[in-house]
Amino acid sequence: MAEDCVFCDIVAGKIPTEYLYEDDTVLAFADLRPIAPHHVLIIPKAHRDTLVHAATEKDGELLLGRLLKVAAQLGGARLETDGGYRIVVNNGPAAGQTVYHLHVHLLSGRHFGWPPG
Ligand code: 5GP
Ligand code: ZN
Fold first, then answer.
1. Whole-angstrom Cα distance, residue 14 to residue 106?
2. Which residues surround ligand 2, an ion (CB under 5 A)?
């Protein structure tokens, strides 16, 4: 748990948030300011600043695999209803990362242009 981390506060139950998925290591919940009709965040319960920090941990492969597996499970339902979905992980300021607790964005419900902005 990191101090001054909004996602650690959500994991700790300090910010009332409806969980869309939970297991022993992963949590998913709706984004507060959605940029698509369906916008879910999938996070590790344990604090990791970025993808790089998670990848270099001893359990990195397991954790990252679990995050993507949950994204695939939640996205699978959207594939049926929305015709597809996009997964995004912003890393660092140039990529638009604002919360430094690793999170996977799962976006669906509209068309997503390519290349992304
Ligand atoms: P980033 O810009 O770091 O890739 O994404 C951070 C995301 O966290 C943003 O989409 C933002 O709306 C979301 N967010 C920030 N604070 C909260 C919060 O307290 N609750 C929820 N559910 N989402 C949040
Ligand atoms: Zn955190």
1. 23
2. 2, 5, 7-8, 47, 101
- Give the whole-angstrom CA distance, residue 25 versus residue 43: 9
pLDDT > 70: percent of the chain: 100
pLDDT of residue 33: 98
1 lies in some domain: no
What pLDDT does residue 117 have? 85
Tell me if residue 103 is catalytic. Answer: yes
> Which CATH number goes with the domain that contains 76?
3.30.428.10
Residue 113 forms part of a structural domain: no
Q: Count how many Cα atoms sit within 13 Å of the Cα of residue 115 in the half-sphere of its side chain.
A: 1
Q: Is position 117 within any domain?
A: no
